[in-house]
Amino acid sequence: MTLQYLLLFSCILIVHPFSLPSHQVKLGGGSTIHNKRCRPLRTSSHLPPKLEHLVQDTLDSDRKIVVVTGGVLSGIGKGVTASSMGVLFRAMGYRVTALKIDPYLNVDAGTMSPFEHGEVFVLDDGGETDLDLGNYERFLSVSLTKDSNLSTGKIYQSVIERERVGEYLGKTVQVVPHISDAIQEWILKVAQTPVSRFSKVANDNDDAKDEPPEVCIVELGGTLGDIESMPFVEALRQLQENLGYKNLCFAHVSLVPSLGDPAEQKTKPTQHSVKSMMQLGLRPDFLCCRGKEQLEPSTVSKLSLFTSVPKGAIVSLHDVSNIYRVPLMMIEQNVHSMLAQRLRLGPYEKGVDYSMVEDLTQIEESVVIKDWKKLADSVDEPESECVIGIVGKYIEQGDAYLSVVKALTHASIATKQRLRIEWIEASSLCKDDDGDDAENVSDETAWDRLKLCDGVVVPGGFGSRGMEGKIQTIQYLRENKVPFLGICLGMQATVIEYCRNVVGIKKAHSAEFFDDLVKDEEDAVIFMPEGDRTRLGGTMRLGVRETVLLEGSIARKMYGSEKVMERHRHRYEVNPALVSRLESAGLQFVGRNTDESGQRMEVCELSESTHPYFVASQYHPEFTSRPELPNPLFLGLLQTCKKTAAAKSKATVAN
Ligand code: GLN
């Protein structure tokens, strides 16, 4: 044999995967990793270096991925299922992160209407995302990043950008492998991005430190089989092969409706949904069945027979009294132990069907689950009721103010009150000079309903519809000493109202709605100098900024600290030139921020001696509220409502 042949032969020995002992895997980069199972079909030599590196890092760090898919219909509860699984991992002591895949073409949710898509959730880093990310942050107690929301638009944009700079030079760029590889890279990158357990709001404790996660929950939006989610499905199939079976599992959320009298649980929709999932090359490890009642044993057997999912791994996610019961319901069905077994986390019993494992992990006594039980119980056993009015523009779309509702819920749980929300369309509250409804006459009960509220929130918003109604609402709340929290546009309306009715600038308004305000002083709210009027996507003042709170203020008392970090999403701000006049008239700007373009007004309030609770913030406090850690401004509102309601009922008894 010539020297050349010898060299070639030894090279083959080094790089060919079959030439290694069965428990070792060779990745193209040259290092050897130990992995008990055979390497996946798609050998490493076919992976582009970036992806290969990420796969290796995931394997080296023993990081696990749980993919949650949905079938039959949208809005079935994939988000809650996925975040509840996250709670189980947290309770087992793992640091968890999440990724939401939205197969639409928008690059992010920033330009989407709340009417169509519900609220835009804002992250610490200014990412404008799908509202599901809010659910993840609240359940997992983590602060996520922009990249935790992936859309078709984002992935195509990144691949096209790479193509333009010549990264794929000479190649035809295709959905498979280029888009599918980019999706896998994205998922693995998010899975390794350090996360803090709480937003920076929690300040300097250990949980606020960023560390790489151990588990990543990936939720695939939409319903399996949708045309637009195909590249993601294919990427997930390949990812399982690249990482190996033990490192990635699938949980499929489906519907089991009950029909007839007596009601019979129907398995066909789920059977079909699993069949189409399998046709796409994905096999569910867990079947999470949504329905009114708990799954009957006969339903479980039938589902198992037709889908090949082991009986134990068919999870009944029936209706419960409140959302906090979902992780508890999963624990009762031993989902945590099954997940741990399936993903070889903790003690692993070789050869045992993962769905037959005993409760290995005993998480019921963990702090996380104890807290969760307390939360669930206090929702079901309130001491009193509290009616909070939400006066806004997107009232018909229940999800448009989701985080505001959640933040109110957290504060109501903490103050042991049952929360009842009175939804009031702002444009129905607008009276013109003759006292007639000016903008909208459709809801004559609006003022009556407002007057029955214990407290009111005027949340953020865009556009002029309902603005006058909001301003008049705030005047009523101020004059009648009704507890009030204004958020973003709600704070801007507060300042306009005060300028008009207390300071005496009758035509005060916001530059958002009137470009031709006559005098500067009528510009109570101005366009921020660094804004961009032409490009609307991602150009607002976005994300977390520091606010310094004044000693002795209500806000400072509620937060208990001088500096707080809260999230923003706005283009306009209070006109700093008017601040001294407003302050001498009684509206105090107790929270300010100093950034590149000078001082920004962040929180304003009336003193406690003037009004029980009249607070408004330019930032959005709702985004950082957590079930275990309600946002202080919402807590202040609900505490005041409880106090004033108790005082009112005492007065009625005395009469
Ligand atoms: N439209 C206002 C602005 O851009 C308020 C925005 C909001 O409420 N999020 O400043």
Brief description of this entry?
This protein has 655 residues and is α/β, with parallel strands linked by helices.
Rg, Å, rounded: 28 Å
Each distinct ligand: glutamine
Beta-strand content: 15-25%
Percent of residues in helices comes to: 25-40%
Q: What is the number of helical segments per DSSP (H or I, 4+ residues)?
A: 20
| Number of strand segments | 25
Low-pLDDT stretches? 1-42, 199-204, 433-437
**Shape descriptor:** globular
Major sheet: arrangement of strands: 15-14-16-17-25-24-23-20-21
Distance between the termini: 111 Å
Looking at how many chains there are and whether they match, the oligomeric state comes to: single chain
- Strand pairing plus helix content: what structural class? alpha/beta
Q: Please describe the biggest sheet, giving its number of strands, its sense, and whether it closes into a barrel.
A: 9 strands, mixed
Mean pLDDT: 85
Protein architecture, described:
With 655 residues, this protein is an alpha/beta fold. The chain is built from 20 helices and 25 strands. 35% of the residues lie in helices and 20% in strands. A hairpin with a 5-residue loop joins β5 (121-122) and β6. α3 runs parallel beside α5, α7 crosses α8 (230-243) and α14 packs across α20. The longest helix has 23 residues, at 632-654. The chain is globular. Bound molecules: glutamine. Glutamine (GLN) binds at residues 460-462, 488-489, 512, 569-572.
